[in-house]
Design goal:
Layout: H1 27-34, H2 36-41, H3 47-72, H4 80-104, H5 115-122, H6 130-151, H7 158-182
Length: 195
C-alpha cells in the first residue's frame, strides 16, 4: 500500500479554538471570545449561544481525541506526526476558549468522553496505516468546517457568528493540508463547503 506524501508545508503555530469536530481559531478570534464576558453581563449573549458553543466543545473534545489516537498510533511518520501534534494543539486552544466562553455565558461545559468511547465512535480498530489516520483526520476536519458554517446563522450574538466563521476557515486550512499530503485533488467546483 502506498503511503501518502509527507511534505507537509510549514504551518506556523497559532492560537486556536474549534467547535464542531476538528478546527482552530486565530488569536483575534480568541480575543472576541474573551470579550464575551462583557457581552454576557450586558445580556446580549443567550443561553442558545451557550448551547451551540457546548455542541462545538463536544466536537473539539472528539478532535483532540482523534489526533491523540493518530499521534499515539505509531503509524505517523515525520512530518505528518508533527502536523498531527500541531493540529491537536489548535483544537486544545479551541477547547479552552470555548470552555471560557460557555462559563462566561453561565453555562456548564460538557466533559469529554473516555478514550475508549472515542476510539469506538471513530472506528479506530480499522486504522492500519498512516493513510488511514490522515483520511480520518481529513474527514473530521471537513465535517467540522461544514458544522461551523452551518451554525453561523443560529447565533443570537454576531460576535459568536464571526468566531464560527474563523473556526471554519481554520478547519478548511487543516483539511486542505491533509488533502494535499494525501495527494487528493482539490474540489473542482466552487462553494464546496457549507452545503
Amino acid at each position: 500500500m502506498n503511503e501518502p506524501k509527507t511534505n507537509i508545508p510549514n504551518v506556523n503555530r497559532r492560537g486556536a479554538l474549534s467547535v464542531a469536530g476538528v478546527g482552530l481559531l486565530s488569536v483575534a478570534a480568541v480575543g472576541v471570545l474573551g470579550a464575551s464576558s462583557a457581552m454576557a453581563k450586558a445580556g446580549s449573549a443567550t443561553a442558545a449561544d451557550a448551547d451551540i458553543l457546548n455542541v462545538a466543545l463536544g466536537l473539539e473534545h472528539e478532535a483532540i481525541a482523534a489526533y491523540q489516537v493518530g499521534a499515539g498510533s505509531g503509524l505517523l511518520q515525520k512530518p505528518a506526526l508533527d502536523a498531527a501534534v500541531l493540529f491537536q494543539s489548535h483544537h486544545k486552544a479551541h477547547r479552552d476558549a470555548l470552555i471560557g466562553a460557555i462559563k462566561q455565558l453561565g453555562g456548564a461545559p460538557v466533559d469529554p468522553k473516555s478514550m475508549d468511547q472515542y476510539a469506538a465512535a471513530l472506528g479506530v480498530s480499522a486504522i492500519k496505516s498512516q493513510t488511514d489516520v490522515l483520511r480520518l483526520a481529513a474527514k473530521l476536519e471537513r465535517g467540522a468546517a461544514n458544522a461551523y458554517l452551518g451554525v453561523i446563522p443560529s447565533f443570537k450574538n454576531s460576535a459568536f457568528a464571526q468566531v464560527a466563521g474563523r473556526l471554519a476557515a481554520d478547519e478548511v486550512m487543516h483539511w486542505t493540508v491533509l488533502s494535499s499530503v494525501l495527494g487528493d485533488s482539490l474540489p473542482s467546483s466552487a462553494l464546496t463547503f457549507g452545503a
